[in-house]
């Protein structure tokens, strides 16, 4: 169902299509705003749930968004008594921050042009994210800036040292910026070079690494249309189209393989937006789905590689005992494990509210075999 946002302008009721890839509902209260509004007034209205439809200079709107963000970030953090409480406070604060910043809106014409002074040309970026424009619409400036940033990442790509090349993520598809987990897949001893399954391929980066390592045929699966399109484009650009097949599937494709790889979302919590589904796995559904189906899809003597961070353990969201019990319940044995420490900036950022957990984090590649095979 197409949602609309409504407002009053020149004593007339007006409306337009509401765009929100995060799934945020259209704001109920919308007022017009332009260069005359102060950052304090804009922050107060946004905090109260009143959206501001911008009619002024586009670059001034970007500056106003930054000013609102600074006011949000000045608010003191809640003191947490435990890691899981710190995690919950952190998510609440992020969610509230996103809601408040999402109250600054900009209009888009049917061709994705922005009818504001000094506006950027965002037609190509919006077409990549949204498809055909069709009708005028309204979007939060915060989301639009994310669309623009994603377009730049898609053009330039992300350098993946383990691949010796670049991966080009699409809008809404999680980027492989944390290279340590890719490095594990590049280093682990291959049980076979005949066939591999890559479950939940995303950008296709792990399927590409396996093919570059000499696996003759890789079947990469995903359910998300954006991920499927992204993986196919990356595989084609890397010249691996004849060796990697990207197929739509709920976890496993048909058949068995001597190697099955999966890098599921690492944190068992609810995702607040589509892009967060690459990070949060409610009730560990994908993790348990992979583990419980692995034995039935492994060839005799084959291995399943589970790439998983232990951040959830340090946050109190999952215990190591629960993970090992899930292996056992699925009829799996652990035959080896490769570990690495994350190198991303937040791991060493003492100001991060989850710093203690991030500093202790280890990412592992668990080598699993089916029991009695």
UniProtKB/TrEMBL annotation:
Q: Which GO terms describe its molecular function?
A: protein-glutamine N-methyltransferase activity
Q: What is this protein called?
A: Methylase
Kindly state which keywords UniProt assigns to this record, in alphabetical order: Methyltransferase, S-adenosyl-L-methionine, Transferase
Query: Which domain of life does the protein's organism represent?
Result: Bacteria
Organism the protein comes from: Thiobacillus denitrificans
Q: Some GO term, biological process aspect, for this entry: which one?
A: methylation
Q: Does the keyword S-adenosyl-L-methionine apply?
A: yes
- Residue ranges constituting the Methyltransferase small domain according to the UniProt record: 189-307
């Amino acid at each position: 169902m197409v949602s609309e946002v409504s407002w009053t302008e020149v004593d007339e009721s007006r409306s337009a299509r509401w765009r929100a890839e995060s799934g945020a509902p259209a704001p109920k209260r919308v007022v017009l705003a332009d260069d005359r509004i102060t950052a304090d007034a804009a922050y107060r209205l946004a905090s109260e749930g009143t959206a501001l439809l911008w009619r002024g200079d586009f670059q001034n709107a970007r500056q106003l968004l930054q000013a609102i963000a600074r006011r949000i970030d000045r608010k003191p953090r809640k003191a947490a008594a435990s890691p899981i409480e710190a995690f919950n406070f952190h998510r609440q604060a992020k969610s509230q921050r996103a809601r408040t910043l999402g109250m600054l809106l900009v209009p888009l014409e049917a061709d994705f042009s922005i009818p504001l002074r000094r506006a950027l040309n965002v037609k190509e970026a919006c077409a990549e994210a949204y498809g055909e424009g069709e009708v005028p619409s309204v979007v939060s400036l915060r989301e639009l800036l994310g669309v623009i940033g994603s377009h730049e990442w898609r053009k330039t790509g992300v350098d993946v040292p383990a691949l010796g090349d670049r991966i080009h993520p699409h809008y809404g598809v999680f980027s492989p910026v944390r290279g340590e987990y890719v490095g594990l897949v590049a280093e682990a001893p291959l049980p076979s070079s005949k066939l591999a399954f890559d479950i939940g391929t995303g950008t296709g980066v792990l399927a590409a690494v396996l093919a570059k390592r000499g696996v003759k045929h890789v079947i990469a699966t995903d359910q998300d249309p954006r991920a499927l399109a992204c993986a196919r484009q990356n595989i084609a650009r890397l010249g691996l189209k004849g060796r990697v097949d990207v197929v739509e599937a709920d976890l496993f494709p048909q058949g068995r393989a001597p190697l099955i790889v999966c890098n599921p979302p690492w944190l068992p919590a609810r995702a607040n937006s589509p892009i967060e589904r690459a990070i949060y796995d409610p009730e560990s559904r994908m993790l348990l789905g992979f583990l419980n189906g692995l034995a039935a899809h492994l060839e005799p003597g084959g291995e399943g590689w589970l790439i998983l961070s232990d951040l959830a353990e340090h946050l109190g969201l999952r215990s190591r005992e629960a993970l090992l019990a899930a292996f056992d319940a699925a009829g799996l044995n652990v035959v080896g494990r490769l570990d690495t420490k994350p190198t991303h900036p937040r791991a060493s950022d003492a100001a991060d509210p989850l710093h203690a957990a991030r500093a202790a984090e280890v990412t592992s590649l668990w080598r699993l075999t089916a029991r009695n095979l």
